[in-house]
Amino acid sequence: MSIHIKNIQKKGFTLIPKVFKKTVCDYAKNLSNRLIRESNIDFNNHDSQSCLADKTGEKVLNNIQNKDYFFFQFISNKKICGLVSHFLQKGSYKNKEPFHLINTQVRCLNPYAKKQQLHLDSNLPGKGGFPLVMLAIVMLDDFNQNNGATRVVLDSHFRDDYALPNKTYDNEFKIYGKAGDVIVLNGALWHGSEKNKTDNERWSINIGYARWFIKPSFDIPRSLKKETYLRMSLFERELLGLKTVPPINEFQRLTRKSKNDFLNWEEV
Ligand SMILES: O=C(O)CCC(=O)C(=O)O
Ligand SMILES: [Fe+2]
Predict the structure, then answer these.
(1) Is 14 within a domain?
(2) Which residue owns the Cα nearest ligand 1 atom 8?
(3) CA of 175 to the centre of ligand 1 (A)
(4) Fewer CB under 10 Å: which end of the chain, C or N?
């Protein structure tokens, strides 16, 4: 673990090999493909402004935490969450404040998908301070020179600016690995997928975690299914932020944190 902590501190990212079996990765791809087909969603019909919302070269499945409990083996994986907790609890009161899930997505680069704009997931440059957001990228396929590996700009988590559109930086580094390996990166590190130069798809899972007071991309507590909730561990329930939903008003509660899960679905 300590080597990964050092890597993330110094370079902004680390690669944990062999976290998931190939059979699990293949199952995740098949299940996601089916769910994407069934949902029949047109992402390019939406009112989003950013170039990152251009999904013409991709297939995506958002919010996997409310699709199938199967995906929790990725979301709440001990190796990933152990590492993430180090960075998202450090500096908080007694280094013990919670962190939570802010986004999940299965992402498939279609054959010949163009390269993704370098960006940061933290919405704020890092400048070397305490990380606010951490990202895990689970490789469901091997990432190689040709099929759209994740590229990062080394040390960019120490910067205070944003990557310029379409610019290639000198210290870009491409992360290669095998299906089942996991990249964990500081959300302030500039990153983006490379061009897929092959006629194969390239699948991965992005999992975003943040300090508990950072707003998630979707309303994760309210969109959870009860059948999924009932299978989740206490750690998983906390991870989904069920105890940090703000009260409606001061008459309901005076603090953002609550004793019970927001959903009130706990078994009695
Ligand atoms: O797929 C990748 O390599 C990175 C994806 C990513 O950073 C994103 O979609 O925000
Ligand atoms: Fe990203």
Answers:
(1) yes
(2) 192
(3) 12
(4) C
Range of the domain at 192: 2-218
CA-CA distance, 133 to 186, in Å (whole number)? Answer: 7
Instruction: Please name which of 21, 49, 8 lies closest in space to residue 185, comparing C-alpha atoms.
Output: 8
Rounded distance between C-alpha atoms, residue 7 and residue 38, angstroms: 40
pLDDT at 51 over 90: no
Q: How far apart are CA 248 and CA 51, in angstroms?
A: 34
Instruction: Give domain status of residue 232, yes or no.
Output: no
Q: Fill in the DSSP letter of residue 255.
A: S
- Whether 258 maps to a domain, the answer reads no
Q: What is the CATH number of the domain that holds 50?
A: 2.60.120.620
Q: Give the Cα-Cα-Cα angle 59, 192, 216 (nearest 5 degrees).
A: 70
- Does pTM top 0.85 for this prediction? yes
pLDDT in tens, 131-168: 999 999 999 999 999 999 999 999 999 999 999 999 99
Determine the angle formed by the axes of helices 78-89 and 2-11, rounding to 10 degrees: 50
Please check whether residue 43 is in contact with residue 55, taking contact to mean a CB–CB distance below 8 angstroms.
Answer: yes
> Which ranges of the chain would DSSP assign to H, the alpha helix?
2-11, 22-39, 72-75, 78-89, 226-229, 234-239
Q: For residue range 77-132, what is the model confidence (pLDDT) as tens digits?
A: 999 999 999 999 999 999 999 999 999 999 999 999 999 999 999 999 999 999 99
What number does the ligand 1 atom closest to the CA of 109 have?
Answer: 1
Query: Residue 99 belongs to what H/E stretch?
Result: strand 99-109
